[in-house]
Structure formats: C-alpha cells, structure tokens
Amino acid sequence: MTAGSSSSAASTPSTTLNATAKPVRKLNFAATSLSRSATPTSKMFRALQPAPLSSSDPDYKETPQPKCFYDLPAELRIEIYKLVLSNVTIHILPPKATRRHQVPHALTRTSKQVRAEVLPIVHSTCEIRANVTDFNFDGILDWINRIPPNQLVNLTKNQDLRIRLCTTLDMGNQTADSLRKWLHLRGDRHRPQPNWQYCGPEPEGKVANDLRRRAKRMADQKKRSELVAMIRGLGLRDPPC
C-alpha cells in the first residue's frame, strides 16, 4: 500500500504539468513570405543591359559630345570676331548725347569672356570716330578713361582714329578747360599715345586766332605739337614760332 501510494503520488505532478502546457502550433511555411519569394519572378530583377562596346570593337561608334562656342580654339574665336567687326565703326559721342544713341556693340554685352576677347580687337582694328563740339573733349576723355591701362597700347596699333572738330561759339572757360585736359593727356610721356587725326570745317576768324595764339604761347613742346596738329586739321595756317 505504501508503495502503491507513493507511485500514485509521484505520477500526479506529471499529469498536472501536461494539463497546463499549451499545445504546440504547427507552422505552415507555405503561407510565409519566405515561401512566396522562393519562386523568382521577372519583376524581381532589373532589366539587363548590354555592356558598352570597347573602342577596339569594329561596331564601336563614339557618341558626339555637345559643343558650344567657347569650346572652339581661341585662335578660331579671334578670327570669327574679326569677321564680325570688319565693317564696324565706333562712334564716340559728346557726354550730353541721348542715352539711346550710346549703345555698345552687341559682342561686348554677350559675356565677360567674349568682352575680354573682343575689346582688344575693337581698339586695334575698328574705325573709331569722335565728335568734339566747341573743343569739349569730355566725351572722348571719359571713353579713354574707361579703357583698362593694360589695353591702352592696343589703340596705338590702330591707324584709323579720327576726331572731328566742330566750332559754333567762342571758346569759353569750360571748353578751354576741357581742351587743356586733352592736351595734358596727349602730352603725357608715360602713356601710350595713339595716332589721332583731326579734321573739321575751318572755324571763324576769332576762334582761329585764339587757337593760333594759344599755340604760340604754349611752352610744353608736346602739347604745342598736338595743338598745331589740331590747327592743321582745321585747315588753318601754322602759328608763328
């Protein structure tokens, strides 16, 4: 009895443990994503592309790259500029000219690079005409002052520079001051001096006599030579020495 009781008591905990344990769930691997992805489809892979041909392949054709004007050699660009500017005349107007007449060439407004390449050609090859009324040189003085110092030498290469003088009134203090500034610039030995030529109708007697008198009294030889060239361009006789 004792043995039977102990055997029955020993089996009771085992029966209780099995009663409280949860049943084991069987996994259905066929319904999982792993199972679905096990079968490859065409959407799972990127479309394959053929490898690029080697340059040694007989069927190889080089794809042309897009070109722009700046890709051309500098020498070729310069020749194009010269063709465009071959018949261009630069007019330097008085400072009081209306703004609609003061229009720079289109090439100089294209880009900084084109402007830097075009201006030396403009200064050295184009016809340049300056109109000066009553010896007021402010317009041409402003124009020259806008040229960078390292490019002034390009004007000395130009053999087609002309200043047209037109006199309508007596030379007043304002125009006399502008004339002095011009003669001072032309007499500067440290600046490149272009070969400006003067022309214009012969002025009235009073203006002509004033010019010849100024030239006679002028002590600076270079300034005097410039004023004498101006007098000759107006068709007047040389002042007395």
UniProtKB/TrEMBL annotation:
Low complexity bias (residue ranges): 1-21
InterPro entries in the record: AN11006-like (IPR038883)
Span list, region Disordered: 1-22
Superkingdom per UniProt: Eukaryota
Protein name: F-box domain-containing protein
